[in-house]
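Entry for the shared binder. Reason: the reviewer on the internal report wants the predicted structure included alongside the sequence.
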Amino acid sequence: MKKRYIVMAAAVLSAVITVCGCSLESADEKEIVTTLSMSDLETLNGGKMPEIQYYYDSDRISLVYGKVSDTKVNNKDDALYVFKELSGLLNISDAESDLRFSVRNPNKGGGIYVFDQYYKDIPTNGSISLSVDSEGNTTRLLNRYIPDIDISVEPELSAEDAAKKAEKKYNAKNREDPKLLVYYIDKKVKLVWDVKLRRSDYPDEVFVDAFNGDIVAEDGPISEVEQ
């Protein structure tokens, strides 16, 4: 008898979901986050605006010294929630899909939560980090998030050709398969191949445009200057 009641209850629940279009997602999965404004930051810091730095010739926030949320941050999920709250101020399109936890660095009893930015599942050279004290209070935010990305992620240049171009230019073999990267440089966003080379001199990492094969940027160890 009990089995029949369970089956009937399941059928009724299924019918209700079908009629109303409801889902079985939890309240947490459908959480509504209130985005914060500049005036909210002022209120959070006792009526005084925290120190805010901007990128040169831009209204894009690069750094905030002070409290940026009332949320207590005790883990990476809490940190991600804060980024959702700040999405309007930082022009974050979708924190849930754009930001992926990278590392937590201990810092004076608290910590720094670092998230890498992705675009259509491809890593970028953008990131964002949040510092908290030992009680989980937010104290500092470093913003390297790249806003408004809108580029094709289908390369015209192959990874093999990108590696050959870098190997020829720098007379060195690549040390691993090149990987696609969405790269922000000079206020422009480009799709590049990240080519890592087997060499001890600078550069040992080269970023090759995935469409025209141009060398977009270089990176690597910097030799110490002799005193």
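Summary line for the report: The helical segments are 2-20, 38-44, 76-85, 87-90, 95-98, 159-170.
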